[in-house]
Amino acid sequence: MGTEHVRWKAETTLERPVLIAAFTGWNDAGDAASSALSTMIESWGASALADIDPEPFTDFATVRPQVRLDAERNRSIVWPTVGVWSASLPGTDVILLLGPEPALRWRLFSEQIVGIAERFGATMALSLGALLADVPHSRAVPLIGTATDTDLIDRFELERSHYEGPTGIVGVLHDALQRAGFPTASLWAAVPGYASQVPSPKAAMALVDRACSMIGTPAPLSSLARGAAAYDAQVAALIGDDDDMVDYLERLEHASDEQSPRTPGHEDGPIADAADEIDVSDVDPDALMDEVERFLRDNTDD
Predict the structure, then answer these.
(1) N or C: more exposed end of the chain, with fewer CB within 10 A?
(2) How many CB atoms lie within 10 A of CB 214?
């Protein structure tokens, strides 16, 4: 597979890496997926490996370049670019891919990612996403993992995806990777729809924790912990004294508690225990997948 639009920045040797990808925009409610990837890049001291030329793939009227000034007030243009990083970790090597969802030529874009995976002999590809759903901010983050590869489903206790309908770059990229012979999985965190404008480090933390448990390396959670602890209070202040919102939140909390029986000794707080944050067994998979499907269909033209 070609990598003609990949601009290499460094040469490196990786041992059976896992490719982890997230995109800003449609697949990134509450900035959760992009924050999770950014945390991995920064916490692991990942090295810049390459980027993908944005010119063939980006609608710059939608995702605008940015003007920057240096110390001498010289102007430069920073283009919205999908970047690629690499790191060698305890348990595995990783290739990390983060940037805006491309607007154009998705098949050609996906070929570039497949080419990167082939070049380094990736063993698995994992995408991170987040969606708006009818979930309460005051409970553990519902998170579901899906795959079509039977071995991955059994190994990581994932759900088999039966979704049909509109998709984003994540779905197209998974299809391209699978056709090239790479097993793929996807993790989705549910973010409260009534707090859509509030970045959710709590959801990002859940994604990081679950992804790292899958790839077999310690999760860098400390940088997200402070923001996750303040998230509940921030959203509670947003709701304020709106009686309708308070009633709505109580109904969501009741529904969440019905689906997720609390374990003895567990106390709800600003941030739950990491294991509780991402325990898929506490989530009704069918209900959450219904949310995913509704999200995809309702936002087709967004």
Answers:
(1) C
(2) 21
- Decide if 266 contacts 140 (C-beta within 8 A): no
DSSP string, 41-73: HHHTTPEEEEEE-STTT--TTTS--EEEE-TT-
For residues 16 and 18, what is the distance between their CA atoms, to the nearest angstrom?
7
For the segment 89-141, what is each residue's pLDDT rounded down to a tens digit? 998 999 999 999 999 999 999 999 999 999 999 999 999 999 999 888 888 89
H-helix or E-strand containing 23? strand 18-24
Give 52's strand partners: 6, 82
Structure tokens at 293: 């499907």
CA dist., res. 55 & res. 23, Å (int): 17
> Residues with Cβ < 8 Å from 5, sequence gap 6 or more?
52, 53, 56, 57, 108, 109, 112
Complete DSSP assignment for 71-135: TT--EEEE---EEEEEEEETTEEEEEEEEEPP-S-HHHHHHHHHHHHHHHT-SEEEEEEEEEES-
Coil, helix or strand at residue 15 = coil
Q: Which residues pair with 69 in a beta bridge?
A: 75
Positive or negative, the Cα torsion across 197, 201, 203, 208? positive
The residue with tokens 């692991």 is 44
- Total length of the chain: 302
Spatial separation of the C-alpha atoms in residues 108 and 21, rounded to whole Å: 17
- Tens digits of per-residue pLDDT, 252-302? 888 888 876 433 333 333 233 332 333 333 444 455 555 555 555 555 554
Q: Report how far residue 213's alpha carbon sits from residue 221's, in angstroms, rounded to the nearest whole number.
A: 12
In the numeric block, the tokens 């549910």 are attached to 190
Which two structure tokens, joined as six digits, stand for 285? 């998979």
CA 31 from chain centre, in angstroms, equals 8
What are the percentages of helix, strand and coil residues in the chain, rounded to 5?
40, 25, 35
Of 145, 246, 137, the C-alpha closest to 201 is: 137
